[in-house]
Structure to design on (353 residues):
């Protein structure tokens, strides 16, 4: 009976501790919804539209409980799943994710203001959904006003003294890295070539193209590609984002000698990131071989030291010589040195007797 009562007490105590822990963890969990003000999504009738809100969480051990509602005058009516509306959640990083509201076949009745919520505490700004039946007004991406544009911060990262070398009539691709925070559009990257005091804008042609590639959520890389580079293309180039952010100059050198060809950037100083080498894959094998050689050398030295400490093992001849010396020493010790008699003296004594 005592054991049963003890078991029940321990069970209740564990349940109480678990509830207290969950309550404390719930109190430490902080969710924040990030939706830019005056966000507008536009779509054409009977097409699919996906709107979203970003949610950051800290100290949480559960996924966010996201709900969507549509604003009607002074209240927000909750939205439920249907044949035309679905919701979705996607983790972007460890502490950030994105909630989606998807209109599978949007209609004009779906136009209006929408809002996403996390639980009952965190609420985002309203998202304006506009539906049109005109082809030229269709814009499935969000439209951000000037106030949100001012919050967009973009920075260009190009190491100082970056040099690209290429051989004539070959392809060369130079690049600059752009980071962006608080932006809801792709960077507007342009390239120019420096002539003394001004930088002349470059346009697409048969020999020059530009490209953009997203590396992470907040970072991408802009490329300027020379399809068939010539000696006239040598010089200093610069990438720009809009009219505010400008990167350091990139030196392009063109040669017609085979031994000077180097399509990868050579950075002489102030290098933020080291360029990839064609022999980069060889270094792990060099490290492994060096480690094996070092281990073999240590084992050989250890073995020689052990053999030297033990000394040379005696042979059979050495053992026999050692035994003979021992017997000789024993025979010499039978008579003390002062009792040993000369043979001639012993004979003369006998005759006298």
């Amino acid at each position: 009976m005592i054991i049963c009562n003890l078991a029940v007490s321990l069970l209740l105590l564990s349940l109480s501790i678990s509830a207290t822990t969950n309550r404390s963890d719930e109190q430490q969990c902080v969710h924040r919804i990030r939706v830019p003000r005056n966000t507008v999504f536009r779509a054409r009738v009977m097409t699919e539209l996906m709107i979203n809100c970003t949610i950051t969480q800290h100290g949480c051990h559960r996924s966010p409980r996201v709900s969507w509602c549509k604003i009607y005058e002074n209240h927000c009516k909750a939205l439920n799943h249907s044949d035309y509306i679905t919701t979705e959640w996607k983790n972007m990083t460890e502490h950030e994710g994105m909630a989606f509201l998807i209109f599978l076949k949007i209609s004009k009745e779906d136009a209006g203001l929408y809002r996403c919520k996390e639980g009952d505490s965190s609420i985002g700004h309203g998202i304006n959904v506009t539906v049109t039946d005109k082809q030229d007004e269709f814009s499935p991406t969000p439209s951000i006003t000037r106030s949100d544009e001012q919050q967009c911060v973009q920075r260009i990262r190009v190491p100082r003294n970056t040099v690209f070398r290429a051989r004539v009539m070959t392809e060369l691709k130079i690049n600059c890295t752009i980071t962006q925070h608080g932006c809801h559009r792709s960077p507007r990257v342009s390239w120019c070539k420096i002539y003394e005091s001004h930088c002349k804008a470059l346009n697409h042609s048969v020999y020059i193209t530009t490209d953009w590639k997203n590396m992470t959520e907040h970072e991408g890389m802009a490329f300027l590609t020379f399809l068939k580079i010539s000696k006239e293309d040598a010089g200093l180039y610069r990438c720009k984002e809009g009219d505010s952010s400008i990167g350091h100059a990139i030196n392009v050198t063109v040669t017609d000698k085979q031994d000077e060809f180097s399509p990868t950037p050579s950075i002489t100083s102030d290098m933020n990131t080291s360029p990839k080498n064609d022999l980069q894959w060889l270094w792990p094998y060099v490290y492994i071989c060096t480690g094996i050689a070092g281990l073999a050398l240590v084992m050989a030295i250890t073995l020689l030291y052990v053999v030297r400490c033990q000394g040379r093992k005696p042979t059979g001849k050495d053992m026999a010589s050692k035994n003979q010396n021992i017997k000789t020493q024993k025979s010499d010790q039978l008579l003390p040195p002062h009792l040993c008699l000369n043979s001639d003296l012993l004979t003369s004594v006998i005759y006298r007797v």
In short: Residues 144-148, 268-278, 345-353 have pLDDT under 50 and may be disordered.
